[in-house]
Amino acid sequence: MSLPYQYAADEAVLIIFSAIPPRQRSQLMRIFDLIAEDPFIRGDWVKKDSDGTEYQVKSFGRWSVIWRVDHPDSCVRIIDVELLR
């Protein structure tokens, strides 16, 4: 299946991804696919950096994911993930 947008993960996300069990990796992959399938999905809230760049922040079950969408490149940039307690 071809997704409308691709996704790319920051290095911090890749470090977390490589350190978690396969089951949790699969959970994250499903979340990343979900966001890429609908890049206009809104987060639970919006976070802005000092440059004014907006990041979507959303909880997906036990995971919190921060991303931004680069529409000209058709890419979802996964900035951070966190396993919620």
List the helices and strands and how they pair.
Elements: E1 6-9, H1 11-19, H2 22-37, E2 45-48, E3 54-60, E4 63-70, E5 75-83
Parallel strand pairs: 1-5
Antiparallel strand pairs: 2-3, 3-4, 4-5
Task: Summarize the biggest pleated sheet.
Answer: 5 strands, mixed
Question: How would you classify the helix and strand content by structural class?
Answer: alpha+beta
Shape-level CATH architecture: 2-Layer Sandwich
Question: Which homologous superfamily in CATH is the superfamily?
Answer: RelE-like
Strand tally is: 5
- Adjacency order of strands in the biggest sheet: 1-5-4-3-2
H/I helix tally: 2
Overall pLDDT, averaged?
95
Helix content: 25-40%
Number of domains: 1
Rg measurement, Å: 12 Å
pLDDT under 50 segments (min length 5)? Answer: none
End-to-end CA span: 33 Å
H and E order: EHHEEEE
Shape: globular
CATH C-level: Alpha Beta
CATH topology: YaeB-like fold
Question: In words, what does this structure look like?
Answer:
The longest helix is centred in the middle third of the chain and has 16 residues, at 22-37. The radius of gyration is 12 Å and the shape is globular. The mean pLDDT is 95. It has a 5-stranded mixed β-sheet. A hairpin with a 4-residue loop joins strand 4 and strand 5. It is an alpha+beta fold. The protein has 2 helices and 5 strands. The protein has a single domain (6-83), classed as YaeB-like fold.
Key terms for this structure?
85 residues, alpha+beta, YaeB-like fold, five-stranded mixed β-sheet, 5 strands
